[in-house]
Design brief:
By secondary structure, the chain is mostly helical. It folds into two domains: about 140 residues, no CATH class; about 40 residues. A two-stranded antiparallel sheet has the order 1-2.
């Protein structure tokens, strides 16, 4: 098992590398969208997980509640935005990403053994690992097994005027505004 200094160094490196990977994926997705190519649910899930991992790593290195609070509020706001759009799978991918760094670090600490003598050190490590693993497993199960939130929504204008189509997919953000034409929105399974 790695010693605490090695774990701290690995977390610091991951905290620097993960945002770069996130920004590269986000730029590639933006490039695809600007070229008219599809950014499907797998790509969206990957960007969401990496973004969640970044937030989780920031929580690990923050240390103080004053620094952690804005990160936690940001995570909550992002989750609420995803849920509000009906993108439940992406919301669960976000939570799984946020909980993963905590789970990995607390799992390493658990398998390395208690750092503090007595049952308190072991209890804190056990609790941290079990809570983190539970959150990750439940989020992954909900994201993978749970029903998709793909639905087609149409504005009241479309219902009143069928030649003015403004249907869109709430999860994949596919838009189509083609008067007089039929709009097909397909669903790729993530």
């Amino acid at each position: 098992m790695p010693d605490p200094l090695t774990v701290d160094i690995a977390v610091a490196i991951a905290t620097l590398v993960a945002p770069a990977v996130f920004l590269a994926l986000l730029a590639a997705a933006g490039w695809r969208r600007s070229r008219g190519l599809s950014v499907g649910p797998r790509w969206s899930a990957m960007v969401t997980v990496i973004g969640g991992v970044c937030l989780g790593l920031f929580l690990l290195v923050s240390g103080a509640l004053l620094v952690s609070l804005p990160i936690l509020v940001t995570t909550l706001v992002l989750w609420l935005v995803l849920v509000g759009r009906g993108a439940w799978r992406l919301a669960f991918w976000l939570i799984a990403g946020v909980a993963t760094p905590w789970t990995v670090v607390s799992g390493i600490a658990f398998f390395r053994g208690p750092t503090e003598p007595g049952p308190l050190g072991l209890g804190q490590t056990w609790l941290a690992f079990l809570v983190g693993a539970g959150v990750v497993l439940l989020s992954l199960a909900s994201a993978v097994i749970g029903g998709g939130s793909m639905r087609i929504l149409c504005s009241p204008i479309t219902r009143n005027n069928p030649l003015k189509s403004s249907c869109f997919s709430s999860e994949n953000h596919d838009h189509c505004q083609m008067p007089g034409k039929i709009c097909f929105i397909t669903r790729d399974d993530a």
